[in-house]
Amino acid sequence: MIYSLSQLAEMLDAEFHGNPDTKILGLCPLDEVSSDFLVFADSAEHMKTAFASSAAAVILSKKPDDATKPVIISEYPLMAFAQLISVFYPDIEKAPGIHPTAYIGAHVKLGQNVHIGPYAIVEDHCEIGDKVVIHAHAVIREHCQIGEACEIHPHVTIYPRTSLDKKVIIHAGTTIGSDGFGYRFIHGVHHKLPHAGSVVIGANVEIGANTVVDRATLGTTRIGQGTKIDNLVQIAHSVKIGEHNIICAFTGIAGSSSTGNNVVLAANVGISDHVRIEDQVTLGARTGVAPKKVLKKGITYLGNPARPKEKALEHELSSTRIPYMRKHISKMQERLLELEQKIAQMTAEIE
Amino acid sequence: MIYSLSQLAEMLDAEFHGNPDTKILGLCPLDEVSSDFLVFADSAEHMKTAFASSAAAVILSKKPDDATKPVIISEYPLMAFAQLISVFYPDIEKAPGIHPTAYIGAHVKLGQNVHIGPYAIVEDHCEIGDKVVIHAHAVIREHCQIGEACEIHPHVTIYPRTSLDKKVIIHAGTTIGSDGFGYRFIHGVHHKLPHAGSVVIGANVEIGANTVVDRATLGTTRIGQGTKIDNLVQIAHSVKIGEHNIICAFTGIAGSSSTGNNVVLAANVGISDHVRIEDQVTLGARTGVAPKKVLKKGITYLGNPARPKEKALEHELSSTRIPYMRKHISKMQERLLELEQKIAQMTAEIE
Amino acid sequence: MIYSLSQLAEMLDAEFHGNPDTKILGLCPLDEVSSDFLVFADSAEHMKTAFASSAAAVILSKKPDDATKPVIISEYPLMAFAQLISVFYPDIEKAPGIHPTAYIGAHVKLGQNVHIGPYAIVEDHCEIGDKVVIHAHAVIREHCQIGEACEIHPHVTIYPRTSLDKKVIIHAGTTIGSDGFGYRFIHGVHHKLPHAGSVVIGANVEIGANTVVDRATLGTTRIGQGTKIDNLVQIAHSVKIGEHNIICAFTGIAGSSSTGNNVVLAANVGISDHVRIEDQVTLGARTGVAPKKVLKKGITYLGNPARPKEKALEHELSSTRIPYMRKHISKMQERLLELEQKIAQMTAEIE
Fold it and tell me: Which residues of chain B are within 8 Å of residue A216 when distances are taken between CB atoms?
């Protein structure tokens, strides 16, 4: 598919400058540029790179005076670019239909225009909303509710009684609703606690690949709408995640902890049990939070144990000063000794 | 299902106080209380919360003098509560039977009352014990032994020659017996070592979701009876885990390391290769252990590198004192300078 | 299978000493020795252990003068041992053939002598090379290319447009080509970026179990030939991994970072986005690298933040000195006070 600059601008309902017939063969990222392709730039630095590259044209937020290539102007260049990605490289659509090898249990309610792929499993008493896509080899256990237009990728396992609101995406290999890690140690043996609770996931949540969300002993593990979870994340039993959170890879949240809305957890963050994180908190990569802590609204924390950013940086900086401090101490000890000797001598002289 | 207080107490063979006809509609956790539901309390704090809540009744270990609600008395309130969870919210039982789409290889021995779900795979020469449940989409490769009453969840892969003792539970997406990460670097290329060993898992072990246990080059990777392993854990080739261990999420144990009995590894612990951990050791979250270390019986270690708890806390505390130390040093430098000047002046005066 | 010492030496084309008829029943590791079995030793310490054990014979690189057991001499004892592992414990071979329950989509090109197991899925427009083994329950989405003699284990998911060169091994539960974790936050909502890029994996790459490699928004996520990746690793979108890297468990590499050739990343290393790691760099366990850093060729880094090894060790050592420094400071304060008092007294006396 080849489009002209003016055709693309029209699709975006955007202003453009330069030859309207400029041919665009595709889109490319700034670090793998092909000529006759379109790139986007959302910073001064990217703009410079873009104009210096062999790209055919650039999407950016404001026309520069010295533009040396055709440009398309958009308030959000990346989102405009994303829109064009779907034009040039449309997703592989799964047509509605239940594959004859899919296993559908008893008392299952299927919505309109559902796709269920080969060997997928939907066990008894599930409700599947309209336009849901369940890929080959997904397993949905009993009594689950899958909302409208959800997409469940291969090798996902959803344990019984899980509920997904609409437009939830779950990537391959992820497990939702497995038993929480709960035992009671009595007379030398760890006794398993039953997990009869459920997992409830809000609308527009996306969960990456090979992640795990455990279900609660009783009550719910909850993930608020709009939250995005990366690959290889661990959400333990009874955790409550707020809305529009970002949770990066290798982050683990232990039992009964909660986050507010718009919380950002960078990679490999460790949150112990019964922690409460208020709205708009950000935790830097590898931050560690001890049990029962409360992290205050809007603050950025770093380090292990977690400290507000300024304190954490001061602490980090301090620790790099230790070698200098050791030199200072050593030098001062010499000076002290010298003084002590002088005074001893003076005292002797005076006497 | 609705039960009366006296009916529940009878099931538990437990003492109760208050109206025997109190209706109990279900169970709930203390942070999501519903009226007409039963809660449990195993600390003074929980007891206070429980009595202040709208719950219908409380299970606790000792009748308080000022009980304001009906109570059931049990030595282990949580375990009694767990027993009632199974009454109110029984597990979804999988009836014995081999689903017609399950693939059973040649020379497989199946015990009595086995459940094998749709599309599950049991390859050649496996032995499956009585009352085993193999869920849809589990894959069990050749020459495996699955002991009595084990439960294998969907999307588990068990590589050849793995042996599970009785009542082992393996959650969805977990891989048992994959090749260890072993190569030899010769002439610029990493040469793969074959992995012909096996994994042997003891009775009553439970392994969470999306965890990996590798098999050995030769010999065995072994997990002792009663040990409980969380989600997203990595157990490398030839590791020997003792009995009744607790191993939390994101913990990794490298090749040929071993733990004794009753060891606790909190989350995100990293144990290098050839480490020996003796009985009853506890490692706090994020503890790191260098290769070939020996951790001594009964001691709690923290930090990276791992230090006995007291030293680790002292070290941690010390490092928070650095800013103060810097101030002290700075102040002392001023005082020294002042003294040096005074003495120089005195010396001059004396002369 | 029983072999004599001389038969084994002949297979290896290697020199041997001792009774040529010595019966060898199998191979064993040095920490689980059985009599009548063969062991290998590649260090002075292992040699001592081997000769003191009940093993029947030893493979080593040089005949010791005081050998007390039959020996086989090989330049690379471990590799010779590995060769014999394949003799005594041959892999379970999967015979060529497409299982009748395998799902093969439209326009799929299958090479010669391919094995596709029960319930495996190969979707439309894939190309599968000669001698490829696709185990039961692997899912390969549309437009993938799987090179000659690749082995794809159960429950692997390969997303559309992924390309594997020859002899790639992917272990169970691993996900290749899932959408990168990319959103743009506009007006309170995280907008998903489409991921239309691909993953390209070089020859002889091996990827462990339950690992994830994301595909790029555009362009490629690339893994160079000969690189070996452990279990539970996260490779984010647009990452470029060089050739012959070693990447251990729980290591995460964020978007658009790159490594050169022969890079070693020990366990639980965290690499932020847009990092550039040059050839032959080694990162120790738990090293953390901040965004946009460049790590220089051939250097070993440790710690978080990553520092060249010498500096990191100095820093680590320094921090263990803090308690001593505190004592020194305290002692110096006393001495200073004493001096100040003496001088005050002397000044008074002089006046």
Answer: 29
Q: The domain C97-310: what is its CATH number?
A: 2.160.10.10
Mutate to test the interface with B, among A318, A319, A321, A329 (most CBs of B within 10 A): A318
Closest-CA residue of chain A to B154: A157
Q: What is the CA radius of gyration of chain B?
A: 29
Phi/psi for B339 (5° steps) reads -60, -45
Domain ranges of chain A: 3-88, 97-310, 321-351
Preferred mutation among C125, C137, C190, C230 to probe A, highest tally of A CBs within 10 A = C190
* Closest by CA position to C109, among listed C133, C85, C127, C122: C127
Instruction: Report whether C183 contacts C191 (CB < 8 A).
Output: yes
Distance CA B10, CA C270 (A): 55
Q: Which fold has domain A3-88?
A: 3.40.1390
Residues on chain B touching C210 (C-beta within 8 angstroms): 173-175, 210-212, 232
Cross-chain CB nearest to B155 (options A139, A236, A238)? A139
Per CB-CB distance under 8 Å, the chain B contacts of A157 are: 137, 153-155, 172-173, 209
| List of chains touching C (3+ CB pairs within 8 A) | A, B
Distances (CA, A) of B31 to A276, B28, B44: 13, 8, 16
> Which residue's entry shows tokens 């599947």?
A128
ipTM of this complex prediction, to 2 decimal places: 0.93
The distance of A186 to chain C (nearest Cα, Å) reads 33
Tell me how close the Cα of A274 comes to any Cα of chain C, in angstroms: 25
Each residue's pLDDT tens digit in chain C (351 positions)?
899 999 999 999 999 999 999 999 999 999 889 999 999 998 999 999 999 999 999 999 998 888 899 999 999 999 999 999 999 999 899 999 999 999 999 999 999 999 999 999 999 999 999 999 999 999 999 999 999 999 999 999 999 999 999 999 999 999 999 999 999 999 999 999 999 999 999 999 999 999 999 999 999 999 999 999 999 999 999 999 999 999 999 999 999 999 999 999 999 999 999 999 999 999 999 999 999 999 999 999 999 999 999 999 988 888 888 888 888 888 988 988 888 888 888 888 776
